[in-house]
Amino acid sequence: MPAAPLLLVWLTLASTPAVPPAAPTATPSPAGDVYSLDDAAFVAQAQRDLAQLERYATGLRGLQESVKKSRGVYLQKQSEPYTPDQKQLLLTTWAAFFDYFVSTEVIRQRYWDFVKVPALTQPKKHAWGFLLTHGALTTELAHGLTYAELTGGRKQLEVMLDEATPEYGLPPRAFARFKEKVIHVATTTQLITGDGYKEQLRPLLSRAGALDAPRVPWVMQEMKENSKVAKGLLVKRGATLFAKAAADLTSDSAQRAFFPVQRAVAEWMGDTRVHRIGQPLIAREQVLAVLKRMEPGDIMVARQNWYLSNIGLPGFWPHAELFVGTPEELSAYFDADPEVKAWAATLPGKPESFTQHLARAFPAKWAEYAGKDAHGDPLRIIESISEGVSFTGPEHGMRVDYLGVMRPRLSKLQKARAVLRAFTFQGRPYDFNFDFFSDQTLVCTELVWKAYAPSTEMKGLSVPLVNVAGRRTLPANELVRLFDAEYGREDRQLDFVAFLDGREAEGDAKEADASAFRYSYRRAKWDIAQE
Length: 531
Description:
Blueprint: H1 3-14, H2 39-69, H3 71-74, H4 84-111, H5 123-151, H6 155-162, H7 174-182, H8 185-207, H9 216-252, H10 263-275, H11 284-291, E1 299-303, E2 319-323, H12 327-334, H13 338-344, H14 354-361, H15 363-369, E3 381-385, E4 388-392, H16 394-397, E5 402-408, H17 412-425, H18 444-451, E6 466-468, E7 471-473, H19 477-486, E8 494-503, E9 508-512, H20 514-520
Helix pairs in contact: 1-8, 2-4, 2-5, 4-5, 4-10, 5-8, 5-9, 7-9, 14-15, 17-18, 19-20
């Protein structure tokens, strides 16, 4: 089929069942659309989104492996009730799938208007738009159909997965909308049409300089492999899958069909991430005010609506950080403390102070820590980000959309030991596998957890790991859950310091109290209003 008719088929099917088909147009994109960016900014954004798509695809593949290991739970007789442990496994796995599906769909929806962008006059936008759209679609279908085949038609399981579970980031009817989108003839036809268009688009991709760009060979191969998996399932089990879904779709079709969130939510997420990067809800003045109340060793949790990190882990709070202060603040806090001084004297070289030990033991790290960030601010934070365990400043670690600060109820000696551990981990790679049993790579909460892990010489913090999709890990949300559970008790481990609560609608943040912070971990991860 020639390219133009293929595009018309795509455009017709790009609308979901509840939305009338659009017509081809070359009118300019709305101001909030990614296609309104100039070519250079558009390609840069597309490359960032392609990197995210690779992470999501890798995460989904890992989840599929986890599901294989626990397949017996899914195949259990539906007359036999699930145990609490089985429920947690099933719900956390679905929540992780849901997280990846939503994030992938946000990318797909952001770029799916590539069909309205003329290939002759705007080849880069058209080519990159197709790569992101079809790459996301094939990822969704390959993993979505595999998951649907396993879970569909199991009444007890479907009822449980369809219930709202805010602490896992699951809204009501999410599973029904998932089924509707992934098991729909329009979505399946988009797969077949896109596969054909991909081959016809190769010359344009080459002219646009896209074929040799980073990760493009990966996405081309990924599209091929995912399409093969999806088509194989459709050939083998398509009739059965559609039959299982038919009765449910009769009632589910009344729900908004966008997979698996409303279009408004996905557009909001995409817009904030593309157009509000570098414009967090928390003002610099608010950060400076909170800094006056903070001490080395404080634990922070953070959330940025436009950069939803830790995709695949449940909960409103996606990120945790360790506050250490400036070198001067670190010295003033620790070096005069008698217990810390006595301990420091036992360390190699018998340093006169704790900070002298840090400077001697980690000269390169100390030199980096004593510097300033790109904004000219002193470095005050150790956090594990995609670049690895890093020293960062308040503009990076605290000027976010939501920020909570907790203080461990520990002695200065205990906190000094935690800071020493954190310095040891600084420079190690980020752990995209969330493996808490390896020290070679670390995820954000892993840095905090291991810095304060109890040992023979350190009381530390007792923060239990949780099972998420069959793996032992620690979402940042669990730190706030622990704070809430122990609040007001004599043996509580954490005290409240501050909570800056973002307000997306107003475009700012407000200072909130401990009660609001205690509730925050229960918020729905994908709630457009952010409560």
